[in-house]
Hints:
- The complex is a heterodimer of chains A (798) and B (60).
- Chain A is of the alpha+beta class.
- Chain A contains 27 helices and 28 strands.
- Chain B is mainly α.
- At the A-B interface, helix 3, helix 7 and helix 9 of A face helix 1, helix 2 and helix 3 of B.
Amino acid sequence: MSDTKLICEHCGSICPDDSISLDSKYFCCNGCKMVYEILHENDLEGFYGIEDGKGAIKPDDYDHREFAFLDNSEIADKLKTYSINNKAKITFLLPQIHCSACIWLLEKLPELKEGILEAKVDFMQKEIDIVFNENDISVRQVVELLTALGYKPKMDLNSIDNKKQTNPNKALYIKLGIAGFCFGNLMMLAFPEYLSGGDFEFEIKEFIKWINLLFIIPLLYSGSDYLKSAYYGLKTKVFNIDIPISIGLLALAGRSIFEIISGFGAGYVDSLGGLVFFLLTGKLFQQKTFNTLSFNRDYRSYFPLSVIRKNNDNEEYIPLKDIKVGDLLFIRNNEIIPTDSLLHSDTGLINYSFVTGESSPLEINKSDKIYSGGRSVGGSMVVRATKEFNQSYMTKLWNDDSFKKQSENIVSKLSSVTAKYFSIVIIIIAVLSLLFWLPESTSKAFDAFTAVLIIACPCALALTLPFTYGTTMRIFGKRDYFIRNDTVVELMNEADTIVFDKTGTLTKVEEGKVEYIGKNYKDYEGIIKSAVRSSTHPISKTILTAVKDSDELKLNEFHEYPGKGIEAIVDSINLRIGSPDWLYNKNDKKLENIPLENSAILKINDEIYGAFINRSNFREGIFEVLDILNNEGFEISIISGDTERDRKEIEENLRSDISMLFKKLPHEKLKYIEELKKSGKNVIMIGDGLNDAGALAKADLGIAVTEETNNFTPGSDSIILGSKLKELPKLFKLSKSALKIVYASYLISFLYNIIGISFAAQALLSPLIAAILMPLSSISVIAFTVFSVKISAKKLRL
Amino acid sequence: MLALIALIAVSLLVAIIFLVLFISAVKNDQYKDTYTPSVRILFDESENKPNNKSNVRGKK
């Protein structure tokens, strides 16, 4: 065996051997070879030139029957966006899209396959729109082609049920475009009025005045959202910031119309233009959404689209809704069990960590009960369904109303309170000015009255929150903490209690941690490594981390005994790793102090060497985070669905005293949050699994944890990557700074208002002053808030 | 003076035409994806051989 390793011509990873080749080029797997063939036949080797060939993806193995369910026209039709005259359009989510080479290759699909007419990639959304001719190619074939290239579409029940939402920003772009058009032109047209000092030709000024009048209509259209929202606010007696904004808009429009028609003045339409334009930019800034994330995924995104049903010797892929009671379902390794069932195989291993929070997989025997949502690990299994998909425990739990998120739109309390006081004060000042001038001159009185309403318009006020929170939200996003909308920043400030889930939140579930107690096995490391690499049991992966640096030894024999363990034989050495029941006689008393229920025993040549104990892999730095947050004044607690096994480890690692509750069911977690809220606390729940869904919905702020943004997360207000949990203290500090910046910005706008009102109340407000003050205040608020937030973030080293 | 008024009117008209074009572009999803076109434009289309299109017809 030569030392030089072969590199796969397609994906660049190391080939295990030289068995797969074509034209003296080697590949690591048949999948890569196939992609290379496809590219080669179509003259598309240019693919390897883009991004230096780093774009190539090694295709997943897949069973060609996996997409058989797409032949079902009912399902296929639901996936299509439209289908007219045999031309159909379909959109797929391809999470593997990661570079420009992907875009290049995918958009060349029409060249790769007859029948595909168009292919367009949206990189940020990681989606592809494909238009194809249904006479030439079927949905199933499109999916199979994508999978063969390495881009297996991510499809779940939600893809079938939900239609694409249209881009909500379209309307806003149009309004902003119109407002910008009006604002820019009006400012230009205002020059004769402001700079000529009255010498300019009368006709021109008249003409411009009437054009100004015309502009009021599109401007009121652009500002219509504010007017509508103010109207609804008044109707439902909920004060919002759009009410004083609308007062300002209407005062500007009204006064301008009056002045122009009566000939008394030039109107303030340019200020109206500036106002609407700046307000809309604020709205656009607020509208930042994180494209590939969904804060509203329900349980259906968790389950796959189809499952294998066994009919005597026949196996077929059926959609989940077709599962009938009594069906025999074949669940492959690492697949999710779609419905409540009984185990049909002799033994099985199920990982419920996402569903209940239990970190150890559960060993079950024939006829044991299985709950939907669990994942089959350590091998495949056959189960007999006892419930239909929609009647299973998990789906019923999920449909429970208490698990649904209360409200879609979080409204800023600060904004409502400010709006109320601001409006009251302004109206009082306006009325006082009116009354003051009334005895002297009616026209001056109305002048002052409307001027106060115009100049005091809270555009600076209304821009503070969108730009402060919006900038904060973007900084959060760069640190992998994604909030649903910008007001979540405010929610972070109001909280005084934080509840943590354990499994998957404080601990990493994907990577286990193993502790070995016993005799030194150094001489046998190579055998152990080879043995665990060939095993599918989850603890094998964990043991691998302990021996990963050693060289693998080729085994003479290898056996995996489901429910028992693995056996590896090299020459005269017989090495076994497995369950205590299989390998260990408890009377032996050799491994007395070891928690056997979470261990795998190591036995070499009939001698018990020791045990690999499966420990929870707590995230790096997480205990410091809990301590810091406790010191900052938050009341911290941990609530988990797992057993008490980790209590000691947590207590030892924490400096503070934190209450911990274990073995809690999803409903109990929800109740815990409810009780905290009843006692007056403002609660943040941080969790990751289906069993946290209720608690996340009930809490004042729910933060979902995930290892990867493409993964399913229960409905929440924000999502954070598990690796970034240790940044929590900094994130809270930034939101505190954001609040301080908001107050400072209010102060600035307050000063502008004082200057403005002093002119207005004296009936000295000319259109020129208004046209200068309003954009000036807007721009300074925007600049101040954005820069201040960025500087705060830099100081926090965020 | 009439000239100035006419000029203002005409330039506003031109500006309005552009506004209308903008609105129809937005409505046609032109701005739905603002990122990918920036990548697409950098692809070197000269890699396509002139007889490429006719080759494809014979495939699969």
